[in-house]
Each structure stands twice: as C-alpha cells, then as structure tokens.
C-alpha cells in the first residue's frame, strides 16, 4: 500500500511539472543561452544540453539548485553558477523554462570508435561481478530515460558533462540521486571506464 501511494504521488508530481507554459518559458530563457545555447544545445562541453530533456527532470534540478542555496548546501544540488541563476526564479518560472527547453530537439553527437566496446558493454550489461547495474535498467536501451520515474534522457548529451557528473557522483560531491543509485554505480567505475561510458552515451540516438 505504501508503494502504491508513493507511485501515485510520483505520478501526480510529474503531471504538475509538465504543466508549464513553453511560450512563457521562451521569453524567460535569455539568460540560459550563455551556457546552454539559445536552442538548449550547449556548445560548451562542460555544460549540459537541456533541449529535449524531460520537463519534470529539468524542474527538479532547478528546484534542487535553489534548495542548496537556501540551506547552505546541506540539501539539494550544489553548484555555485546554477545556484546563483535560480535564486530569483519562482516555481512558475521553473515550470515554464522546463516546458520550453523540453519542447526543443536535442542535437546529435558521435561516439569515438575507441570507446564503443567498453562503453557499450557497461551501458547494456554492466558488470555483475563488481555489482555494476546496466545503464539500460533506468535510462533505457536508447538512453531516453523515463519521465514518470524521473530518470533523465542522456542520449546525445555532451560527453564531457556526463563525465563530470559521473566523477561527482563517484566522489559523492553530487548526492541528489534517487536512493544513491548513481553514486553506487559510479563508485565502482575507473577513470577510463567513465570516459568510455560518457562518450558512448553521448553518441546514443
């Protein structure tokens, strides 16, 4: 019964997240373009593409950046740049921005040949001996994630950004993942595996 209540609450929250006004979000998105690009496809590899991302996920991250700022970093997601950017945003602003960027198409990336073998193995199968779950379990075979479960779309994402996030999860510098799932996986990955996996995911489409 508790599990059912949790699922219903999650579905309800996601339906609320999806109600932003994309046109209003477009008018509010000017300051986002400097890092994420006017069309949500950042050309600076250390910043994420947010075009085509699930609106609920975008909104959740914006709220957690703000939460980190208002709690002195004890809660939410710590990032000095994004923390400063979101402080003036209302919940309606966040919802509108999420609706706008999610409506835009994400650009494609290409996976280097050298990263395919290791990246594909980890992504599709994981490593049972080391207790590493496959990425497909949450993000799907094409890396599209699932909006209702809160798992983000990662296909086509900037590989350098993915690499930075995996490193942050590995060191627990980033800790806003559900049930520590990303921290658990990343803690078992080597530097080379993180690089290969990041580049493989970036080329999924």
From TrEMBL:
Binding residues for heme c 2: 135, 138-139, 182
Signal peptide (UniProt feature, chain positions): 1-18
PROSITE patterns linked to this entry: CYTC
InterPro entries assigned to the protein according to its UniProt record, in alphabetical order: Cyt_c-like_dom, Cyt_c-like_dom_sf, Cyt_C_IC, Cytochrome_c4-like, Cytochrome_c_Oxidase_Subunit
Keyword Signal: yes
Predominant location category: periplasm
The record's account of how the chain is modified after translation: Binds 2 heme c groups covalently per subunit.
One Pfam family here: Cytochrom_C
GO molecular-function term, one example from the UniProt record: electron transfer activity
Annotated GO CC locations: periplasmic space
SUPFAM superfamilies for this protein: Cytochrome c
Residues binding heme c 1, per UniProt: 32, 35-36, 82
Subcellular location: Periplasm
Keywords: Electron transport, Heme, Iron, Metal-binding, Periplasm, Signal, Transport
Domain Cytochrome c: 20-105, 114-205
Listed name of the protein: Cytochrome c4
Native source species: Photobacterium indicum
């Amino acid at each position: 019964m508790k599990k059912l209540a949790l699922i219903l609450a999650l579905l309800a929250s996601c339906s609320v997240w999806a109600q932003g006004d994309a046109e209003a979000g477009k008018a509010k998105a000017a300051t986002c373009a400097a890092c994420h690009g006017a069309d949500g496809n950042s050309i600076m590899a250390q910043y994420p593409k947010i075009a085509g991302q699930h609106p609920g996920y975008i909104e959740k991250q914006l709220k957690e950046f703000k939460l980190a700022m208002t709690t002195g970093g004890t809660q939410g997601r710590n990032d000095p740049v994004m923390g400063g950017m979101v402080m003036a945003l209302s919940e309606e602003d966040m919802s509108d921005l999420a609706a706008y960027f999610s409506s835009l198409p994400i650009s494609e990336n290409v996976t280097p040949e050298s990263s395919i073998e290791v990246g594909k193995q980890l992504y599709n199968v994981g490593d049972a001996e080391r207790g590493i779950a496959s990425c497909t379990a949450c993000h799907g075979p094409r890396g599209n994630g699932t909006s209702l479960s809160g798992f983000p779309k990662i296909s086509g994402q900037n590989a350098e950004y993915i690499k930075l996030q995996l490193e942050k999860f590995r060191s627990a510098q980033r800790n806003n993942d559900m049930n520590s799932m990303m921290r658990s996986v990343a803690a078992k990955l080597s530097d080379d595996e993180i690089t290969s996996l990041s580049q493989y995911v970036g080329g999924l489409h």
